[in-house]
Amino acid sequence: MSKNIVVAIDGYSSCGKSTLAKALAKKLNFIYIDSGAMYRAVTLFFLRHNIDLKHQESVIDALSKIQIDFQTSETQTLITLNSEDVSKEIRQMPVADKVSTVSAIKDVRIEMVKQQQRMGRSGNIVMDGRDIGTVVFPNADLKLFMTADPQIRAERRYNELISKGEKVNMEDIFENLAKRDYQDTTREESPLIQAVDAVVLDNSHIDETQQLEFAIRYIKPLLSKK
Ligand code: DC
């Protein structure tokens, strides 16, 4: 039996990881898993149930009550938390404010990694996040590490939020990104680091089509080996 192909995409916040991962999954007919959305769903559950993050037993008990699934259709991927579609709510401010803290908790990471590895056995997948090529799938067939100039990332994020009608200012966005980069790269549990065998994709000056072509160039040889 041939082995599933796993493509791991890691990198900084607002680097376009999910844009690339979704485009790749669509083109190759792979399953797309947004691991950041899983940490967001856990955060939402903890907020709704007022879980004391410093109380390990409460955290472990809450984790045992969480079932996260993805439902992919032609047009979108939905994430469900105990069968409820929470795709929109996990992108809102209360979750965004707390997710860095929740994703730094060791027991949370242990449970999510377990679930992510299980998902990886269900077919060919593209998974994006911070520790996919280092912790979740250290033997991934292809590891991409995405990066881009912080100023360009902030501008992209700014334009995206403005186009959604949100009132934001550039300075706040730049600071928020810098803070998230710092938290992601310096935390004790599974910090964001480039896997030694990862291919770096700096998309500061290339567009979505070009980054897709870049990734496909590395994936094609894997497909022909199957
Ligand atoms: O990719 P994102 O912004 O939706 O991720 C939300 C948070 O989850 C962010 O604080 C980083 C964290 N995260 C993580 O620690 N490990 C992952 N594999 C994916 C995301």
Question: What descriptors fit this protein?
Answer:
about 15% strand; about 50% helix; binds 2'-deoxycytidine-5'-monophosphate; about 230 residues; Rossmann fold; five-stranded parallel beta sheet; 8 strands; alpha/beta
Walk me through this protein's architecture:
It contains 9 helices and 8 strands. It is α/β, with parallel strands linked by helices. It has a single domain, classed as Rossmann fold, CATH 3.40.50. The strands form 2 sheets. It has a 5-stranded parallel sheet with strand order 2-6-1-7-8. Strands 3-4-5 form a 3-stranded antiparallel sheet, covered by helices on one side. Helix 1 packs across helix 9, helix 2 packs across helix 5 and helix 7 packs across helix 8. The longest helix is centred in the last third of the chain and has 18 residues. 34% of the residues are buried. The mean pLDDT is 93. Bound molecules: 2'-deoxycytidine-5'-monophosphate. The site of 2'-deoxycytidine-5'-monophosphate has 13 residues, from helix 2 and helix 4.
Summary, kept brief:
By secondary structure, the chain is of the alpha/beta class. The chain has helices at 17-28, 35-48, 56-63, 93-103, 106-119, 132-136, 150-163, 170-186, 208-225; strands at 6-11, 31-34, 68-72, 77-81, 84-85, 125-129, 142-147, 199-202.
Spell out the blueprint of helices and strands.
Layout: E1 6-11, H1 17-28, E2 31-34, H2 35-48, H3 56-63, E3 68-72, E4 77-81, E5 84-85, H4 93-103, H5 106-119, E6 125-129, H6 132-136, E7 142-147, H7 150-163, H8 170-186, E8 199-202, H9 208-225
Helix pairs in contact: 1-9, 2-4, 2-5, 7-8
The protein binds 2'-deoxycytidine-5'-monophosphate.
2'-deoxycytidine-5'-monophosphate (DC) binds at residues 13, 35-36, 39-40, 99-100, 103, 129-132, 184.
